[in-house]
UniProtKB/TrEMBL annotation:
This is Hydroxyacid dehydrogenase. GO terms for biological process: respiratory electron transport chain. Keywords: FAD, Flavoprotein. Residues 42-223 form the FAD-binding PCMH-type domain. Belongs to the FAD-binding oxidoreductase/transferase type 4 family. Coiled coil: none annotated. GO terms for molecular function: catalytic activity; FAD binding. Its cofactor is FAD. PANTHER family: BLL6224 PROTEIN, D-2-HYDROXYGLUTARATE DEHYDROGENASE, MITOCHONDRIAL. Pfam families: FAD-oxidase_C (PF02913), FAD_binding_4 (PF01565).
């Protein structure tokens, strides 16, 4: 096959005619922010960043690109952890930013749904729901930047999955521009609609490889009337799991988050993040952030929290604990968890593993994976943290002190493979919530090979026969 060519000037002129000067960026200085991922793993090039102002404009852009055979990289807030939203290095791909599709089309507190465009940030959607007395129960650390289209395209999980599920569990309907420029309007607010294949779930988690999500109908829930949060010091992951089972025994529906953090990870946050403070008297090998919430008024969550923690302190399961006494204190506790990625970034080079195992196996996984990585790279600093309540652990590895960052990052495949060998022993997944992107397609044949991967390839070929939608992401090249 000939080398891919950059988009022709005639195509860019046609696109400009659709979106105007405001909607087309071509200068290197203007496009630079769209060609590098948040982790700085990938630095691509593009001749143009297109910023459509409506679904109809986007559909026309896709038709033009399909006719020209020009690949498209859809991009939301560009917060992908696996390079899923950046173009390649040869300059042949056009980036399509959804940022201008930023309207909230509808919000119905009776149906408990909201219809939002792809460029609305998750935080903006949360605030709009709260303004009408509702809760959009999806929360991730990058919610101030991440956009709804990207959040759905990767099937984001986040802090409240233990209670409300992943992003796909909150989607009732979608509007999608298909690879030929056709607009599929599936913006239905129905809770029951058993009319053939569930097409929306094809696009949730597809990372823009099958089409571009332009709008979505999302489920809402009642706003909590009571919220209680506590930070608990524990000596081992086993103690953290014991604490989780105690809360489950009392009221599993009250648990909105159960987050595990290592002492090392917390130390990076305290070292690098201004305003981060640890309210416990002493640091511990592991710390748990537990949050309870209920829409029922006077439900007695505080009494339940105190009762569970009191018994756990008495028998030594918990070494120390603090309960938030105000919203400001609750936010301060969450800051310790949400700044983990940034703290690691400022500490040095890190290799990230977004894995899941059965909840009951989290402690054993952490111990075995830690031993495997320490044997592989002496001095490596192991930083496991994340959503223990749903079995999703971000098993990250920080470079050894004084190691060369470039050398350490060059070990990423060996490190990820070592971790994934352990994940496989526990019947887990090598990608829990971050997706596949550019980083992990090479893993797909080993993990999802045979009939499963072949079916994915056939779906891709049927919907996107020209292969123009976010090429090089999710699926490996066919042999």
């Amino acid at each position: 096959m000939p080398d891919p060519a950059p988009p022709a000037d005639t195509l860019l002129d046609a696109i400009r005619a659709v979106v105007g000067d405001r909607g087309l960026l071509t200068g290197r200085a203007d496009t630079a922010a769209y060609t590098e991922d948040w982790r700085r793993l990938y630095q691509g090039r593009t001749a143009a960043v297109v910023r459509p102002g409506s679904t109809q404009e986007l559909a026309e852009i896709v038709r033009l690109c399909a006719a020209a055979g020009t690949p498209i990289v859809p991009q939301g807030g560009n917060t992908s952890m696996v390079g899923g939203a950046v173009p390649n290095e040869d300059g042949s791909e056009i980036v399509v930013s959804l940022a201008r599709l930023n309207r909230i089309r509808d919000l119905d507190p009776i149906d408990m749904t909201m219809t939002v465009e792809a460029g609305v940030t998750l935080k903006a959607a949360q605030l709009a729901a709260a303004d009408r007395g509702c809760l959009l129960p999806l929360s991730i650390s990058s919610e101030g930047t991440a956009q709804i289209g990207g959040v759905l395209a990767v099937n984001a999980g986040g802090n409240n999955t233990v209670r409300h599920g992943n992003a796909r569990d909150l989607v009732l309907g979608l509007e999608v521009v298909l690879p030929d420029g056709t607009i599929w309007n599936g913006l239905r607010r129905l809770r029951k609609d058993n009319t053939g294949y569930c097409l929306r779930q094809l696009f949730v988690g597809s990372e823009g490889t099958l089409g571009i999500i332009t709008a979505a109908v999302l489920k809402l829930v009642p706003q909590p009337k009571e919220i209680e949060a506590a930070l608990c010091a524990v000596q081992t992951p086993e103690a953290a799991l014991d604490l989780f089972t105690r809360f489950q025994a009392h009221d599993p529906a009250a648990i909105s988050a159960f987050e595990l953090m290592s002492g090392l990870g917390l130390s990076f946050v305290l070292k690098h993040i201004p305003g981060a403070t640890l309210p416990l008297e002493t640091a511990a090998p592991f710390t748990v952030l537990v949050e309870l919430a209920t829409p029922r008024p006077q439900a007695g969550l505080r009494a339940m929290l105190e009762q569970v923690l009191e018994r756990a302190l008495e028998d030594g399961t918990v070494a120390d604990a603090v309960i938030a006494e105000s919203e400001a204190q609750r936010a301060s506790l969450w800051k310790l968890r949400e700044e983990h990625s940034e703290g690691q970034k400022r500490e040095g080079a890190s290799v990230k593993n977004d894995v899941s195992v059965p909840v009951s196996q989290v402690p054993a996984f952490i111990r075995k994976a830690t031993a495997a990585c320490e044997a592989l790279i002496p001095g490596v600093r192991v930083v496991p943290f994340g959503h223990m309540g749903d079995g999703n652990i971000h098993f990250n590895l920080e470079q050894p002190v004084d190691a060369d960052p470039a050398w350490f990052l060059a070990q990423d495949h060996a490190i990820m493979d070592a971790v994934n060998d352990v994940v496989r022993e526990f019947d887990g997944s090598f990608s829990a919530e971050h997706g596949i992107g550019r980083l992990k397609p090479y893993m797909m044949p080993d993990w999802r090979g045979g009939a499963e991967l072949d079916l994915m390839q056939r779906i891709k070929a049927a919907i996107d026969p020209g292969g123009i939608m976010n090429p090089g992401k999710v699926l490996p090249p066919r042999p």
